[in-house]
Amino acid sequence: MDSAVAADLMQICGADNVITDPQQLRTYECDGLTAHRCSPGVVVLPQSAEQIAAIVRVCAARHIPFVARGSGTGLSGGALPRADGVLIVTSKMRIIIAIDAASRRAIVEPGVTNLSVSKAAEPYGLFYAPDPSSQVVCSVGGNVAENSGGAHCLKHGFTVHHVAGLEIVTPDGEITWLGDGTGAAPGYDLVGAFTGSEGTLGIVTKIVVRLTPIPEAVTTLLAAFTTMGAGGAAVSSIIGSGILPAAIEMMDALAIEAAEAAVQCRYPEGAAAVLIVELDGPAADVAAQTDAVREICTTTGAYEIRAAQDAAERAAIWTGRKSAFAAVGRISPAYIVQDGVVPRTALPTVLDRISELSAETGIRVANVFHAGDGNLHPLVLFDDRVPGEQEAAEKVSGMILDLCIEHGGSITGEHGVGVDKSRYMPRMFGADDLDTMQLLRCAFDPAGLCNPGKVFPTPRLCGEVPGVRHAPHPLVASGLIDQF
Amino acid sequence: MGTGTSGSAAETIPADLANACADVALAGEADAIGGCQARFVAAPASTSEAAALLSSAAALGLTIVPRGSGSRQHWGAAPTRCDLIVDTRRLDRVLEHAAGDLVVSAQAGVRLNDLADVLALAGQRLALDATDAGDVDNGTGTVGGLIATSAAGPLRYRYGSPRDLLIGITVVRADGTIAKSGGKVVKNVAGYDLGKLFAGSYGTLGLVTEATFRLHPKPESATWIAVETTDPKAAADVTRVMADAPLAPSAIELDWPSAAEPIAVSVLLEGDQASVDGRTERMISLLTAAHAGVEPVAGPVRVGRVPVDIRGRPDATMIRVAFWAGQLTTVLGIIRASAAEHRVDPAISGSAGAGVLDVVAENDAAPGAKAGFITTLRAGLAGLSAVGGVVPSVASAVVVCAPPVVRDAVDLWGPVPSPRLMRSVKDQFDPEHRLAPGRFAGGI
Predict the structure, then answer these.
(1) How does pLDDT run across B15-42, given as a tens digit for each residue?
(2) pLDDT > 70 in chain B, percent
(3) pTM over 0.90
(4) What is the 3-state secondary structure (H, E, C) of A413-451?
(5) Which of A173, A310, A399, B226 could pair with A57 in a Cys bridge, judged by C-beta atoms 3.0 to 4.6 Å apart?
(6) Chain B: residue whose CA lies nearest to A438
(7) Across chain B, what does the average pLDDT equal?
């Protein structure tokens, strides 16, 4: 990378906030998906929107690609740097600017961690609902880029449901606001379109998030079943009864085995499936629903049901589930975390097919998933020291995505497409669908410099737009109004 | 319609249009949108027929305005040109109701009433009570119109607007290209979510032909609890008590028919009977404890509700004011003061909890007075700021519908955030500006 670029960036952010040392650059070579690595050309750590805008203008003028990164916890390589580009890291922008309890809004900088928003809102009886499992470290800016979910999005929704306004730096270096914090701003819903665009439409510099009243009561139930089918039947029955739990999570025997080995979560012995059901809301409702869920689980064959009465017991139940991804490291030298979605009613069929796939290929698959919304996280286990096993595992992992598509689902429920799944996009969407999505990209980033190579397998050439160009509004032309 | 009784005497249907779509007719007098007379009306029955239609319309350089039942056709600015109305009435099929997945897919022309009937068979609903949002269509509006206008009623407080429940969309672009985004599962982050972009786009980006929504169980029981007061500050305090109570309200509405009348603030509790009864009792005691002397009234209907026949008149001037909910007292003050200055006495109603109010100016007010009111109101709202002081604009007043004399005097949409990006989006999706030209914000 041209050293003049680093010099420009130092002018903007100070030498202390620009990294050019190859050893230090390697710290940023991947995000949470370590399979894809690339040392960035240069790393810069800005401290304000104005600095980011200036950095982006340098990139635009020199036609250098740039990638934004929050805490680097993403699981699809969305923040994978470019060797010929600038990595803009927002981790020094960590100010919670304000909380408006009466409006149930917080205004935060992009580097603020997800959990710290809830901590700051707690004194007002409010919390920030989206809770990705990395919430202790992941940043709100990254959550906006990925439209992050979390275990509780079944009831409370995703990031896009909790963002009401965004200040962004456009890919040509302009600072602008999308939305106005009301959630009902006039014009196109660019807040909605931007959220989940995986850093390809610009860089978020301030976020107005919605805050939600902390539920009066929370109950967490753990139910153990002797078959996955019985656990699945319980899930269908709970949803069918009209109850909307905050979360319904499921783990199979292999995932339980891994969790026991790693954190001794002491789930009921002999379980082929455990279900974690969390209910929140008004106290009387939670009590009634807890009884109803217990009864459903018993009817569908649960042989042991535990209920957490307090935060400590709740944490104990969640320990196994939350540690599951890392825990499979105890039972396998290497593994792939997959993220796919199927309609909830297709879960039994798809899970059966996954175990058949596993039997056919000899590749073990541990299943951990958000059962309430059909979001599967199969952990495909392999031994990277055995020649050919990684390829076999990747093949199984890809076949699972095909299963999801075949059943009308999605290739990603919450981890994003990033670099990891862009090649699968044509399996889920046609060429015209992808072309149409990229019209949005062209509207924001015609030069294609903002996080290029992500989401879409082939970039669209934006070209010059024919036809009418930016004709002024008649009222502007006539001098009656001046806002446009 | 389509009898060819008006328009140019020499008008004939171009052969290419007739070949593309089985149902094309010359436009009649009724086929005018905001005073803009159409030349042709076509009603495709499938996405592919709509694509063929739009493709041939593109070749002919025709401007296009989509139309559902027409119940909200008077919303938004009038199009500057309208050669072809694409009527969705034949796109009338509910494609799939996956009750076990709480998801429904429907064509754009399906009436919301009909959809609700299908969903009710499984005890489910689309939690968007747009029929209560200030129009008189009684549910005759369509799925496509709901999305295009982003209509939402009291349930907006809990469930949001169409963009929040829309999980998949199929559209036909200006050039006839068919595109879809999202899918049939609620949790899905694959690709850009074009549904968000199309929700509230008033037909300016493409024709919506199919949509998939997330559903919710239809509650067994519903109770409104209302408090009346003459003091806007007290109304705001009541709103806050309702919102802060851990009782999971579905809606928090405010009704203030005129300056001289009291303000009613009402909270909606939904669920099974025992739950609603229990929460109603608790809500009443919370309200009574917080405001000595108030007497909450509970019942199945909203007390003091501004009648639909005031809010939904086709010739009404309805202004949608959106703001940060914590500024309710100030916003009510700005609305009433602006109105008084121009001798207008509007009815105010809407989601106090969500910060979206519909302001309906009475019909007999002088036309200039209404335009003046809108201008003063916008100036007042522009003076608001939110905590932190970093958000440049924190409130808006959009004229949703108005008679021609008001339309001619004010910009219906007012200022929008990031107008440059919005124009850029329009230029990409509709480079020739043939889709509902002039209907949207910023002259789009």
Answers:
(1) 999 999 999 999 999 999 888 999 999 9
(2) 94
(3) yes
(4) CCCCCCCCCHHHHHHHCCHHHHHHHHHHHHHHCCCCCEC
(5) A173
(6) B192
(7) 92
Beta-carbon separation of A443 and B428 below 8 A: yes
CA dihedral in degrees (A21, A23, A24, A29; nearest 10)? 120
| CA A28 vs CA A31, A43, A102: distances in Å | 7, 8, 40
β-strand partners of B85: B41, B65
CA distance A199 to A144: 9
At A323 the pLDDT is 86
Distance CA B204, CA B80 (A): 12
What span, in angstroms and rounded, lies between the C-alpha atoms of A20 and B443? Answer: 47
Q: How far is CA B296 from the centre of its chain?
A: 30
DSSP lists the bridge partners of residue B358 as B320, B349
Say which of A177, A410, A466 has its CB closest to residue B188: A410
Residue B273 class from Cβ within 10 Å (0-12 exposed, 13-18 middle, 19+ buried)? exposed
Q: Is the ipTM of this complex over 0.90?
A: yes
Per-residue pLDDT band for B308 (boundaries 50, 70, 90) equals low
Instruction: Name which of B354, B368, B359 is nearest B325 in CA terms.
Output: B354
d(CA B310, CA B258): 11
| Residue whose tokens read 């008590």 | B241
Instruction: Give the list of residues 6+ apart from residue A352 with CB closer than 8 angstroms, or none.
Output: none
Confidence of residue A375 (pLDDT cuts 50, 70, 90): very high
Which chain A residues in 225-244 lie under 8 Å from chain B, judged by CB atoms? 236, 239-240, 242, 244
Q: State the DSSP string of B262-312.
A: PEEEEEEEEESHHHHHHHHHHHHHHHHHHSTT---EEESS-TTPPPHHHHT
Structure tokens at A283: 């106290």
Report pLDDT digits (tens) over A147-192.
999 889 999 999 999 999 999 999 999 999 999 999 999 999 999 9
The predicted pLDDT at position B9 comes to 56
Q: Do A465 and B196 count as a contact with CB atoms less than 8 A apart?
A: no
Percent of chain B with pLDDT over 90: 82
- Taking the C-alpha atoms of residue A362 and residue A377, their distance in angstroms, rounded to an integer, is 19
Closest approach of chain A CAs to the CA of B245, in angstroms?
A: 8
The answer to whether A344 touches A375, Cβ cutoff 8 Å, is: no
What tens digit of pLDDT does each residue of B283-305 get? 999 999 988 778 899 999 888 88
Query: How far from chain centre, in Å, is Cα B173?
Result: 22
d(CA B278, CA B286): 13
Nearest to A71 by CA among A27, A24, A17, A6: A27
Rg, C-alpha atoms of chain B: 22
Picking from A195, A248, A414, A436 by the largest number of B CB atoms within 10 A of its own CB, the best residue to mutate is A436
**Cβ contacts of residue A339 below 8 Å, gap of 6+?**
A75, A76, A375, A376, A377, A412, A413, A414, A415
B interface test, pick of A188, A434, A469 with most B CB neighbours within 10 Å? A188
Residue reference for tokens 């027929």: B49
CA dist A28 and A7 (Å) reads 20
Residues B268 and B251: beta-carbon distance below 8 Å:
yes
Q: What DSSP line would sit under B319-387, residue for residue?
A: EEEEE-GGGHHHHHHHHHHHHHHTT---EEEEETTTTEEEEEE-TTS-HHHHHHHHHHHHHHHHT---T
Structure-token pair, residue A44: 């810069």
Q: What is the mean pLDDT of residues A286-309?
A: 96
Contact A102 B326 (CB under 8 A): yes
Contacts of A300 (CB under 8 A, 6+ apart): A225, A230, A231, A233, A234, A237
CB environment A252-277: b (16+ within 10 A), e (fewer): bbbbbbbbbebbebebbeebbbbbbb
> B6: pLDDT confidence band, cut at 50, 70 and 90?
very low
